[in-house]
Amino acid sequence: xxxxxxxxxxxxxxxxxxxxxxxxxxxxxxxxxxxxxxxxxxxxxxxxxxxxxxxxxxxxxxxxxxxxxxxxxxxxxxxxxxxxxxxxxxxxxxxxxxxxxxxxxxxxxxxxxxxxxxxxxxxxxxxxxxxxxxxxxxxxxxxxxxxxxxxxxxxxxxxxxxxxxxxxxxxxxxxxxxxxxxxxxxxxxxxxxxxxxxxxxxxxx
Length: 205
Ligand SMILES: Nc1ncnc2c1ncn2[C@@H]1O[C@H](COP(=O)(O)OP(=O)(O)OP(=O)(O)O)[C@@H](O)[C@H]1O
What we know:
nucleotide-binding; six-stranded mixed beta sheet; binds adenosine-5'-triphosphate; P-loop_NTPase; Rossmann fold; alpha/beta; 10 strands
């Protein structure tokens, strides 16, 4: 995978099993977020192939696969001017999920009272919680979490374990990028260490 002609991911051969959650660790700039973007079909590798749900990813299959993938990345995927509830209703409409579940998932992440607040007026942690509500609403088969604990308070941290457990229970798979070895070993079945875009270590729990 090249970005601006500099290779970012190289010789990467990684397979996620159904029901498995892997932890992705590595130094800043080692390629973790880039790998998540490739898996989320947001960027296409310049060489090699990506297979999701048994199908090789191209422009057509990416559109279908994307409906089964959720990425919680560094910046919240929320429209600032829409309220949290409007944001989730929009997600429900775009992904064909039932809108009636929106109040329920907002309550699940502790945002019932903030549902009517514009996203721009929410704290970083509240926005993160709203993104976890999006994950609960869309029930992805592949869940990609990029340093998701950042900004979450003590009460909200278990929500990450919960969404990963839900993915596992549906026989989906998850990838958790984190710099915290303790969290990775608690939440993941395998830890994959990246170094300069290559898999350096794989450690099973
Ligand atoms: N849009 C881009 N254009 C050019 N280079 C990029 C782009 N995005 C990332 N890179 C480069 O790709 C490499 C990997 O970046 P990436 O964000 O995947 O690392 P990371 O492991 O997630 O780092 P961190 O722990 O700091 O979040 C870095 O050298 C970075 O400078």
